[in-house]
Amino acid sequence: MTYRRSRPTLAALAGTVVAVLAAAPAVAAPAAPASPPAEGNEWTADLGTVDADDVNVGTGAAGLRLADPNPSRAGRRAAAEGMLLLTPHRLATPANRVRAELAAAARPGGGAEVEVRGLRGADWTEWRTATATAPAVFDRPVDQVQARIVLTAERPEAAPTASALRLRADSVAVTAAATPGLTYQVYATREGLVGGMTANGHVITSRDHFVSFPSARSLSPKNTGDYTAKVCTTSGSRCEYAPVWERGPWNLRDDYWNPPTVRETFADLPQGKPEAQAAYQDGYNGGKNDRGSTVANPAGIDLADGTFWDGLLLTNNAWVNVSYLWTGTGSRGTVGSGPLNIRSGPGTSYAVKGLAAQYAKVPIECWVTGTSVAGPYGTTTRWDRLATGEFVSHSYISATTGEAVPAC
User: Fold this and answer.
1) Is the distance from CB of 37 to CB of 129 less than 8 angstroms?
2) Among 303, 290, 193, 197, residue whose Cα is nearest residue 244
3) Phi, psi dihedrals of residue 40, rounded to the nearest 5°
């Protein structure tokens, strides 16, 4: 992945700082004052460079803007949207709270907001909206912070511009955002839309392998599996590990896997229940989604065609069991070439239990010796046992993160 440089010096912000459209999740402040920022915990971002990691944005005299401000894909997105992904910034002192001051010109029907995530060790937190008055708060201290600016416009004349961004990191006491290893049963629909573009800028190919959730908090940058889901049939006979590259279905701010204290919207619903399911089954919100459209099915996940047909062998929309792997812990292996067969044992003679998509980060419990496999990362007899009992050949794993993986 390519990132642009950021400037760690303080600079005066040009223009008026405007509030972003969506508030960050509410977190109770402690009685004691927050610790002051250390040198390196306050920085000004570079908004002047656009590259392949960015989606539908450009730069001009007024600053960052939408490259194409015309809304597209009616029924899925009600507004044109663009996203600038900034380079991660290393903090001088670990912190778990980030404030963002964005100088932007916004018009009715348009908006500009800042979202941030943090890295500690090998794992990223979820994305959180951040403003100067409603900061993003992570469930653990982080060493690096990455920001992205999201621009939206319901019509071309409402397109906003952003001219400067300053960020500040410090620490407060918080409660963990989620229980490790969350798994819920939700209804899955097929994405389709071959040739279209996902929310992270990926162009959908025939029999593609990724998943979509109705919130950008778990959206992976293009060609990464920073946020990976394991999706299984309810019988458990087939599973796929796939990166989260799209936003939807039905809602755009429904991180239903999170508890009410941090859930972005619909906090009165039970944890693990998508708003679309509640709307369809129970008439919640008048049976409508967050944009006022009538919900026609209870879907909480979309599956790309390859995940739907080849990974799970589905022929129709169905209930599935989903594990939100970024809420778990432990070592991860990145699938460098795929889709990769996951097997019931450490060898090519064992039954195929499903697939692991390219870029997916699979949870590795330990390794064993099995049949020799020649793959893109060498020839080896090592087979990695995943946390749920399946096996993949290590010759297809491009990198591992976290603690050293032990022998089984």
Assistant:
1) no
2) 303
3) 95, -10
Summarize pLDDT for 252-296 with one digit per residue, the tens: 999 999 999 999 999 999 999 999 999 999 999 999 999 999 999
| Domain 42-170 = CATH 2.60.120 | yes
What residue type is assigned to position 137 of the chain? Answer: V
Coil, strand or helix at 22: coil
**Distances from the Cα of 394 to the Cαs of 140, 361, 370, 379, in angstroms?**
31, 13, 10, 9
pLDDT tens digit sequence for 333-385 = 999 999 999 999 999 999 999 999 999 999 998 899 999 999 999 999 999 99
- 393-400 contacts at long range (C-beta below 8 A, 24 or more positions apart): 393/340, 394/333, 394/367, 396/335, 396/336, 396/337, 396/338, 396/340, 397/333, 397/334, 397/335, 397/336, 398/334, 398/335, 398/336, 398/337, 399/333, 399/334, 399/336, 400/331, 400/332, 400/333, 400/334, 400/364
Domain boundaries, the chain: 42-170, 183-327, 332-401
The CATH code of domain 183-327 reads 2.40.40.10
Q: Which CATH class, in words, describes the domain spanning 332-401?
A: mainly beta
Q: 235: how many CB neighbours lie within 10 A of its CB?
A: 7
